């Protein structure tokens, strides 16, 4: 089936954010999936005229997913006349081929085909018109299509991540591609920035800034750079989290004494309290359907994760293993809960199957923080520490595939994985 698709470059035009970051993320990959799919990827015809070697972006994306064994197919000069049996003989179940042509307007026409060597047929085709600065994105989109057609799960290579870097007294809120490339600066400050959280449409980020010498919650439009104050109440304002429809933001405020959960309009105003305990209730996260809020509370004596209606009311305890569980994050399908658990003196990433109650430890490190699901629910991004140095890590939900993202100088922390883009 032929698919025609033109990339939406308006919403994704984060190049409008002033000041690209200097430090580049370095990605290290370890581990593979349990059943890797062998895929041959050919160099795209005339891709040398593009600022991006698109076939290399595709190869790297597929390799770091852990789901594929990538085979170098060399160059295919005629993508309409291919002997698929030769690639099947090399062990490939599928073949990726494509062409790149520069148009009169300076944009590039990127065409690709995914061929099945097993069925001797075409599985997918995608045509894109990409301005020069978005040719990497075109490669990510193709990798997403390959991933989805061969696994049945939507790919996340064209998504974005946000995180905070710290070097001395300099803090930067940055946005990057999911592979750590194409870094853009959203905010720079001499005071701490914490708890970034993506809006469901990927155009805004909520975060906490200490630039007023106290924690204040803002929402920033990544395209216009307009900022809106969501909560600047007496005491601490922290832990913003968006509702799935983008209309509300849950926050943790200490305005009433002990920290409690409140919900505000995402445009500002409409603040109302939804938790009411004698303990500390914090780190709210909406459920996938927006009807409930997961949060951390010490109402049982030690921090544990609870769930209540998004309108408030009685709460039910969710975590029972381990005496210290914090930072709940819910997968997009509502089936899994990621969190940080302290056991044996180590803070480590766990994932809980909400239906069965079965949990799995995903990290061997000792100081993990701030988990965030990929929008397809198959990977978790989090902050960790090794050798006294803060870094970001990505792990598949089965624990088999692991990535590590570092920068040359300073610390990198407070990660959040952005949504699928339209």
TrEMBL record:
<keyword id="KW-0132">Cell division</keyword>
<feature type="signal peptide">
    <location>
        <begin position="1"/>
        <end position="23"/>
    </location>
</feature>
<dbReference type="GO" id="GO:0051301">
    <property type="term" value="P:cell division"/>
</dbReference>
<dbReference type="Pfam" id="PF04052">
    <property type="entry name" value="TolB_N"/>
</dbReference>
<dbReference type="InterPro" id="IPR007195">
    <property type="entry name" value="TolB_N"/>
</dbReference>
<dbReference type="InterPro" id="IPR011659">
    <property type="entry name" value="WD40"/>
</dbReference>
<comment type="similarity">
    <text>Belongs to the TolB family.</text>
</comment>
<protein>
    <recommendedName>
        <fullName>Tol-Pal system protein TolB</fullName>
    </recommendedName>
</protein>
<keyword id="KW-0732">Signal</keyword>
<dbReference type="GO" id="GO:0042597">
    <property type="term" value="C:periplasmic space"/>
</dbReference>
<keyword id="KW-0131">Cell cycle</keyword>
<dbReference type="GO" id="GO:0017038">
    <property type="term" value="P:protein import"/>
</dbReference>
<dbReference type="Pfam" id="PF07676">
    <property type="entry name" value="PD40"/>
</dbReference>
<dbReference type="InterPro" id="IPR014167">
    <property type="entry name" value="Tol-Pal_TolB"/>
</dbReference>
<comment type="subunit">
    <text>The Tol-Pal system is composed of five core proteins: the inner membrane proteins TolA, TolQ and TolR, the periplasmic protein TolB and the outer membrane protein Pal. They form a network linking the inner and outer membranes and the peptidoglycan layer.</text>
</comment>
<keyword id="KW-0574">Periplasm</keyword>
<comment type="function">
    <text>Part of the Tol-Pal system, which plays a role in outer membrane invagination during cell division and is important for maintaining outer membrane integrity.</text>
</comment>
<dbReference type="InterPro" id="IPR011042">
    <property type="entry name" value="6-blade_b-propeller_TolB-like"/>
</dbReference>
<feature type="domain" description="TolB N-terminal">
    <location>
        <begin position="25"/>
        <end position="122"/>
    </location>
</feature>
């Amino acid at each position: 089936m032929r698919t025609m698709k033109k990339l939406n470059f308006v919403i994704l035009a984060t190049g409008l954010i002033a000041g690209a970051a200097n430090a580049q993320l370095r990605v290290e990959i370890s581990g593979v999936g349990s059943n890797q799919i062998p895929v041959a990827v050919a160099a795209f015809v005339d891709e040398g005229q593009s600022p991006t070697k698109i076939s290399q972006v595709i190869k790297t994306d597929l390799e770091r997913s852990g789901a594929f064994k990538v085979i170098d197919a060399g160059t295919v000069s005629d993508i309409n006349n291919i002997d698929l049996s030769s690639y099947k003989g090399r062990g490939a179940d599928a073949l990726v081929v494509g062409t790149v042509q520069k148009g009169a307007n300076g944009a590039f026409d990127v065409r690709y085909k995914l061929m099945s060597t097993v069925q001797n047929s075409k599985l997918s085709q995608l045509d894109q018109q990409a301005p020069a600065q978005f040719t990497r994105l075109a490669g990510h989109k193709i990798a997403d299509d390959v991933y989805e057609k061969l696994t049945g799960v939507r790919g996340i290579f064209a998504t974005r991540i946000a995180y905070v870097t710290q070097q001395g007294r300099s803090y930067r809120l940055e946005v990057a591609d999911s592979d750590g490339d194409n870094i853009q600066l959203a905010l720079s400050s001499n005071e701490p920035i914490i708890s970034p959280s993506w809006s469901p449409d990927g155009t805004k980020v909520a975060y906490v800034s200490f630039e007023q010498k106290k924690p204040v919650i803002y929402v920033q439009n990544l395209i216009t750079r307009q900022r809106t104050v969501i909560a600047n109440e007496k005491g601490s304002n922290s832990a913003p989290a968006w509702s799935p429809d983008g209309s509300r933001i849950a926050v943790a405020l200490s305005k009433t004494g002990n920290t409690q959960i409140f919900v505000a309009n995402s445009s500002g105003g409409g603040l109302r309290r939804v938790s009411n305990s004698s303990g500390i209730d914090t780190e709210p996260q909406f459920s996938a359907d927006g009807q409930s809020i997961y949060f951390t509370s010490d109402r049982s004596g030690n921090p544990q994760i609870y769930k209540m209606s998004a309108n408030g009311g009685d709460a039910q305890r969710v975590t029972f293993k381990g005496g210290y569980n914090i930072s709940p994050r819910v997968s997009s399908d509502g089936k899994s809960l990621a969190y940080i658990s302290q056991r044996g003196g180590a803070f480590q990433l766990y994932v809980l199957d909400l239906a069965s109650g079965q949990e799995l430890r995903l990290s061997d490190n000792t100081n993990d923080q701030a988990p965030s699901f990929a929008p397809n629910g198959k990977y978790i991004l989090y902050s960790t520490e090794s050798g006294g140095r803060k870094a970001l890590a990505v792990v598949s939900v089965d624990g088999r595939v692991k990535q590590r993202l570092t920068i040359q100088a300073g610390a990198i922390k407070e990660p959040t994985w952005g949504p699928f883009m339209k």
